[in-house]
Known about the structure:
Layout: H1 11-25, H2 33-47, H3 54-62, H4 70-80, H5 86-89
Amino acid sequence: MTDATEEAVPESAAVRLSDVLLGAMYSDRHAAPEEHEVLRRILCQLLGREQLPLRVEARLQDFDPAEFDLERKAYACCVIQKIYLPPLVQL
Length: 91
């Protein structure tokens, strides 16, 4: 496990990214448990950690697809924040 100074993606960016990915998962109104596990693995890989930080895990648990605007969040996450996430290209 790495400390916060060695993270590939900052924890705050992982929270924003989790919103975008959760929104995409729920775009068909249903997200299977397997999809949640894949998302956890992706975020752990991006953070360089074996387990998600509590803040990120809480976001995954508290996500409400009914109140989510995917287009707005994706723009804010990837354009405004200029987050470069090469592992996501593989998806």
